[in-house]
Every structure is written in structure tokens, then in C-alpha cells.
């Protein structure tokens, strides 16, 4: 895998700044594990402005869908990577951001998608 670091820094509401890093598509679990190895996590989108910022950052890459850090737990509750909860999203177990419609979709966790990782100081975005 080839990684390209983009040195543009931006701020997300409630978080510090982040930088973009492109990587290959993966399943939700593989993407989450990749993020956690880096001491990050799949992005939790807790504000409308964060959703718009991530969509605007992914749009120029041509990615059709991207994993977000939202997954249904064993107890059928929806949880973000940071542990916060949310309302019911759909019938499948993982959530992606569909770029064309800028909406969240519940999808199979095995589907390989680009992904967005974050930390308090950085955000990583995957792209082929």
C-alpha cells in the first residue's frame, strides 16, 4: 500500500486540527484496526458541520463511499468509535457515507470502502 500525506490542516467542531492521509479500501473491521494501530479511530461524525467537512474533503478524491466509525453492537445499539451513541441507522451492521447523496447507509461490514480515521490532532482519509 502506498500512503500519500497531504499537509493541509483544517479544524472539525469539537476536535483539534487534522491532516489527510490516503490509503487503500478495506472492510470496516480492517479499517478500524488500521486506525487503532495508529492510535486513531474511524471518524465519529457528531455534528452536521463535521459531516459537511468530511464530505467536502472526500469529494475531490472521487470516492463513492467511505466508512464512518458507526457500527451496531452485539446488543443491537448503534455506537460511534468514540463510544457515543446515536439513533437507529438501518438494518445492516456498519455505516458508510455515500458521497453522491451525502447520506449515511447501513451496509455489510465486509464491503471494502475508503475510510476516515481521526485523532484529537489528526484525521486520516483513505483513498485508492
From TrEMBL:
Keywords: Disulfide bond
Protein name according to UniProt: C-type lectin domain-containing protein
Superkingdom, natural source: Eukaryota
Organism, scientific name: Neogobius melanostomus (round goby)
Residue span, C-type lectin domain: 13-118
SUPFAM superfamilies for this protein: C-type lectin-like
Amino acid at each position: 500500500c502506498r500512503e500519500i500525506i497531504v499537509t493541509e490542516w483544517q479544524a472539525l467542531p469539537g476536535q483539534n486540527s487534522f491532516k489527510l492521509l490516503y490509503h487503500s479500501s478495506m472492510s470496516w473491521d480492517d479499517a478500524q484496526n488500521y486506525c487503532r494501530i495508529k492510535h486513531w479511530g474511524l471518524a465519529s461524525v457528531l455534528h452536521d458541520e463535521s459531516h459537511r467537512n468530511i464530505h467536502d474533503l472526500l469529494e475531490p478524491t472521487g470516492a463513492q463511499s467511505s466508512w464512518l466509525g458507526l457500527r451496531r453492537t452485539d446488543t443491537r445499539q448503534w455506537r460511534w468509535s468514540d463510544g457515543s451513541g446515536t439513533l437507529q441507522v438501518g438494518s445492516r451492521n456498519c455505516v458508510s457515507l455515500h458521497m453522491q447523496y451525502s447520506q449515511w447507509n447501513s451496509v455489510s461490514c465486509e464491503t471494502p470502502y475508503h475510510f476516515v480515521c481521526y485523532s484529537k490532532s489528526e484525521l486520516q482519509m483513505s483513498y485508492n
